[in-house]
Amino acid sequence: MPKESSFDVVSEPDWSEVLNAIDQTRREANTRYDFRGQDIEIDYDAANHVITLDAPEGMVMDSLKTVLGEKMARRSVSLKFLDFGPVESHGMSRARVSVTIKSGIETDLAKKIQKAIRGLGLKVEPQIQGASLRVSGKSRDDLQAVIQFLKGQDFGIELAFTNFRTA
């Protein structure tokens, strides 16, 4: 009788690469010609995973947001992890933007993914486990078919497949 195999579907960025991208954005903000003489602040709240960009309104803020996105993409951090908030003006023609780094799969989306997996008709069992989804089954081919199916779908978040186990 075959043993049960499983894998986890997660949505989690590489946090060290996120920190590297933030650091590179700070460095570029200090050295880039069009940012010279501008008072630019880039703060990162590690507990809440929020980046705060504080810069002059208009073109400078737009350029700073673009630089952050470029640095994240260059460090292989998907832009689907970034949730740019609205630009908030706070006087003296300055603006602030909060960028939330999303991680984990929300329950509603996990249920949608779970339903899509069940709709394949394969002999696998998806289970929601907190901020991830565990898919288990007896056939490795079925599990690989699920991975290929999920890679081809767009659920609005970046999905990764970890913890592939054979029991």
CATH topology of the largest domain: Alpha-Beta Plaits
Radius of gyration over C-alpha positions, nearest whole angstrom? 20 Å
CATH class of the largest domain: Alpha Beta
What spatial form do the alpha-carbon principal axes imply? elongated
Order of SSEs: EHEEHEEEHEEHE
Uncertain runs with pLDDT below 50, 5 residues or more? none
Number of strand segments: 9
Can you tell me about this structure?
The protein has 167 residues and is α+β, with helices and mostly antiparallel strands. It is 35% helix and 30% strand. It has four helices and nine strands. The strands form two sheets. Strands 2, 3, 4, 5 and 6 form a five-stranded antiparallel sheet that branches. The protein has a four-stranded antiparallel sheet with strand order 7-8-1-9, covered by helices on one side. Helix 1 packs across helix 2. The relative contact order is 0.23. The model has no long low-confidence stretch (mean pLDDT 95).
